Amino acid sequence: MNASETNKPFLYAVKMRASKGDVHLSGAERLVGKEQILPVSQSLLKRALNHTNGNADAIHLKVEAVECSEVLKVPSLPVTEMSAANTDEAFAVLERLLKENGLRNAEACLRLLRNAPPMRGAMLVDIRTLQRCEPDPKRGVRATYMDGEKACFDTKKNYFREALILATKVSSAPHIVGELCISDDCNYTTGYFASKKSGYVRIPNLKTLGDPHGGRIFLYDDTSKKDLEETLYYLEHQAVIVTDLPTDTPSVLDVKQRLKTLKEKHLYRTETVIKAVESDRVRINGKWYVSFTSNDYLGFSQHSEVKMSAARALKQYGVGSGGSRLMCGTSELHQRLERLIADFTGYEAAMVFNSGFSANVSILPALFGEGDVIFSDALNHASLIDGCRLCKAQTVIYRHNDMSDLEEELRSASFKHGVIVSDAIFSMDGDIADGTTLTALAEKYHVLLYIDEAHATGVLGEHGRGLKEHLHLQTKPSYLCMGSLSKAIGVEGGFVAGSAEMIDYLRNTARGYIFSTSLPAPSVAAAVKSFQLLQQSPQYVEALRENISFWNALCRQYNLPMTAETPIVACEVGSEDRTLSLSERLFEEGFFVKAIRYPTVAKGSARLRIAIMALHTREHLEQFAQTLTGLWKEMTVKN
Ligand code: WAQ
Ligand code: MG
Question: Which of 296, 443, 542, 596 sits CB 3.0–4.6 Å from 301 for a disulfide?
C-alpha cells in the first residue's frame, strides 16, 4: 500500500480470502474510503472466522490503494423478481431470457452452466460458438475491484447485494452481453440472469436445497476477439463503484400486504368488546356469555372490598401518579403493597412494576450481560423471551420442563453468571414447573433461579403463595420470584420479590421501573386489598381448587381429554382455522373462549385456552363441558 506518497484521493480495495488446507471457504471484497478500511476489514475478518463452511486455517487480507480518478461509477442494473416453483420452471425462465437476449443456442448454454466445473472464477463464453475464451480455464475470469456506493459492514454474505454489484460491473464491461449465475452454496438456491437489456433478473429455485453445484457464465460477443484483452482487463482490474443500489432507498413498509398474509394464515386477531362483567359472565353485543377466557382466577377484579379500596384511593390520591417511582410516583400505598408482597411470598423485599411484561423485560437485562448465560424453558412466556433478547447474555433454550436436558446444558456451558428462567405455571399449557429439581439444579450449578409466578400467585399453594408453597420449598437467597398483579390478584401490574439487596439493586437498574410512570393509586390500593384477602383466608384459593377438581371430574365423566392441574386447561386442536371455528361454535352456544394461535403457541398447535375461575358456577361448568364434548366429538370424528 503506497498511497501516501502522493496527495491524490484514493479508494482502497480490501480483499479477504479464507481457506482450510486447499479448500476455499469464503472470499469477499470491498472498495472503500480510508476511514472505512478498519471497520470493513473487521467485518470481513469476522465473516472469514464464522463461515458455515468450516474453520479457516489461513485468512488472507489484502488492502490496495486505487486512485479515485480511475474509479468508474456505474448505476445499478434494475432488479426484477421472477417466480419459479421448481428447477424446471426456473430453467425455463433462464432459457426465455437467453433467447430474448439474442442467444440462438440457449439450451446448449444452459447445459454448460449446469455442468460448470468448480472454480473460483467465471467462464467467459463466446455466444456464437459457446467456446470458452479466458486464458486460464481452470481459474476462470474473476470480476474484482467493485463495491456499492455505501460501505457495507455485513459480517454475513449478502448474496443479493454482492451479486448485483458484480452483475452491474460485468454487464458494463466491453463486449459482455449477459451473465448467468447459480451460487455454489448449497443453501442458496436463487440465481440470476443479468444483462444491459434485461437488467438483473432474480430467479428462485435454480437448484434444490443442499445441492453444492453452482456456476457463472459471462457471455462474450466479439467474434474477432480483437478486444478480448480489453474485456479481461475491465473485469479483473477496472475499479467500479455501483451507485443507486436498491437497498439504498428503503421501501415503504407494506402493512396492508402483511395484514392480508395474517388473514390468509388464520393468524389475524380481533378484539372482543366487553360491555359488562358480572361474576362468571360477560356481556358482548347485548348478550351474556359465560366466560372461560379471564385470568381473574379468584374474581378479585369484582370483589366488593377490592373495589372499595380502589375507590378510597381514588378519592385520596387521584387518578394518575404523576411520575416515575424515583420521582414523585411512590406513595405510602406503593410501599405498603411491596411490604405485603414480600411477606406474602416469603422474601425480604419486593418491588412493583407496571406490568409483568415490563418486569421481565427489565429485570433480566438489569442483571445479566456479556459472558452470562440464561437457561430458558422452551415454553416460557413472550415477556421472558423478550427479556432474554434484550440481554447481551447468551440464551440457551432447554426442552420444556425437561430437567435432564436442562442439566445437560448447565453442565456443558461455561459462563460468568448463569440463571435458570421458568414460568411456574405455563400460561398456554397449564402445567407446573418442576420447581424441586429447578431449585436443586440452580444450587448445584451455582446459578440464580428466576421463576415467573404470573399464573401461580393466588393459585398454587394452600394460601396461593405460589410454586414455593405448593412444593414446600425453602426460600433461598439465589431465588428470584417474579409475579403479576393482573391475574388472580385481579388488578394490573407486576412484581418481583427477592433479597433486600437484590431489590435495592433492581430499583436502581431495571429500566421499565425507572422510566415508567408508576401504577396509579387505585390500582395499588386494590392490589393491597387482594393480598390481604388472600392472607386472611384460604377460602378463595380453595374455591378455585374445588372448581378445578369439579372440572376434572366432568372431564372423566364426559371422556374429555382435558383434565388440568391448574385453572388453565389446554384444549389443543392443532390447525388454526379449526380452532377458530370451535371458538365460534362455542360462542354461538353462549360461551366465550378465545382461540390461541401462533406466535402465542407454536404453528399448528393452536388451541382453546380454557380458564377456570373460582366464580364459575357448577351449572356453568357442567353446561360448558357438555357443549364442548359434543363439539369436540364432532371435530375428532371429522378429522
Ligand atoms: N468473479 C467471477 N466469478 C465468480 C466470482 C467472481 N468474483 N465469484 C464467484 N464466481 C463464480 C464461481 O465459479 C462460483 O462457483 C460461482 O460464481 C458462484 O459463486 O439475487 O453466491 O459466490 O439473490 O457462490 C446470487 C444471488 C448469488 C442471487 C451468487 O455466487 C440473488 C453466489 P457464488
Ligand atoms: Mg459460493
Answer: 296
